Amino acid sequence: MKLTFRWYGPSDSISLDYIREIPNMSGVVTACYDVHVGGVWKEESIKHLKSLANEHGLAMEVIESIPVHEHIKLGLSDRDELIDNYIENIRRCAKYGVKCVCYNFMPVFDWLRTTMHHKNPDGSDSLAYSYEEFLKVDPKNLHLPGWDESYSPEELQNLMEMYHKVSHDDLFNNLVYFLKKVIPVCEECDVNMAIHPDDPPWDVFGLPRIISNEADLDRLFAAVPSTRNGITLCTGSFGAGRNNNLVHMAEKYTKQGRVHFVHLRNVKWEKDDGSFTEVGHCTKDGSLDMAEIVKALVVNGFDGYVRPDHGRNIFGENGKPGYGLYDRALGATYINGLFEAFEKIYKK
Ligand SMILES: [Mn+2]
């Protein structure tokens, strides 16, 4: 297992000096943020990020993410040009040692919560999704925590309308079209594509979502069989879906050689309407059996990249929601413990 940590580049309030002090930390997971979605990343920016990481003893082998332009997801006429740009980004990243690209294919919103600051009984706060709160959101006048600055209200409405005619099958076919062009380049460049599951794993605001469960993954892998076409096993995203058996999924897709990257976090299911709270990483704190998930990875030969996913705000920190230092660092040490124990017992 190679332990990594998400780093939002030089403007991240969490420095590489801090990240390197987390036990067993091997590298950062980052991206170029200086080019608009759909554009070609500047080679000097990729090189700069890598040298900053390397100067701190950290690798930069995972990119999260190279975002997919909405026109590719919509299947519009300019998609070929945008896919060419995407491919050029993969080539440029590969040139600087990148081995894994995390991306997603969710229309418009690549995550959804109803609060960034749910107050937990222990005094910490975390992201949460309440179905009751979700029902109060007016899809015609969207104001969502964490999203209000991403698009102007008009842009958002226009984009939502463009998806009205896009069915689940259309979106799936657009993903396959994209991967059929991208995967051959990944084979050539020794890069793994790791699709991030839908977060949460169901449709929102009438927008289709197609990477929500095991059946969705099986369909994707049947359409594009190369094992370069793999997943980011995000336990918290899949795990918000109560029918997803994460232990089984970890076992099955590790055996297939398709788990290229793992996001480990726990969620606590609230009520029985889909509501959930993000909690500390330990099994006991949430609804997912984190130890059994890690065991399934190790027993089946997983040796890829892992990062602690969202943490709570603790110790008085007022970090970027989900991405503060302290709880993710505690999560990292917990992940280290699970892997060390299971690797000692089961790794051949
Ligand atoms: Mn994730």
Bound molecules: manganese (II) ion
Q: Structural class given helices, strands, pairing?
A: alpha/beta
The poorly predicted ranges are none
Please give the CATH architecture.
Answer: Alpha-Beta Barrel
Q: How many strand segments?
A: 12
Computed over alpha carbons, the radius of gyration is: 19 Å
CATH topology: TIM Barrel
Largest sheet: 8 strands, parallel, barrel
Beta-strand content bin: 15-25%
Number of helices: 12
The helix content, as a percent range, equals 25-40%
Mean pLDDT over the full residue set = 95
In the CATH scheme, the class would be Alpha Beta
Alpha-carbon distance between the two ends: 13 Å
> Strands of the largest sheet, in order across it?
1-2-3-4-7-8-9-12
Concise overview:
With 348 residues, the chain is an alpha/beta fold. The chain contains twelve helices and twelve strands. It has one domain (2-346): Divalent-metal-dependent TIM barrel enzymes (TIM Barrel, Alpha-Beta Barrel).
In words, what does this structure look like?
The chain is an alpha/beta fold and 348 residues long. The protein has a single domain (2-346), classed as TIM Barrel (Alpha-Beta Barrel). The chain has 12 helices and 12 strands. It has helices spanning 16-20, 43-55, 70-74, 79-95, 131-135, 153-162, 168-189, 214-223, 235-239, 246-255, 290-299, 326-346; strands at 2-6, 25-30, 59-64, 100-103, 115-119, 125-129, 192-195, 229-234, 259-264, 266-269, 276-279, 305-308. The strands form 2 sheets. Strands 1-2-3-4-7-8-9-12 form an 8-stranded parallel barrel, surrounded by 4 helices. The protein has a 4-stranded antiparallel sheet with strand order 5-6-11-10. Helix 10 runs parallel beside helix 11 (290-299). 43% of the residues are buried. The chain binds manganese (II) ion. Residues 196, 234, 237, 263, 309 line the site of manganese (II) ion. Manganese (II) ion is lined by residues 196, 234, 237, 263, 309.
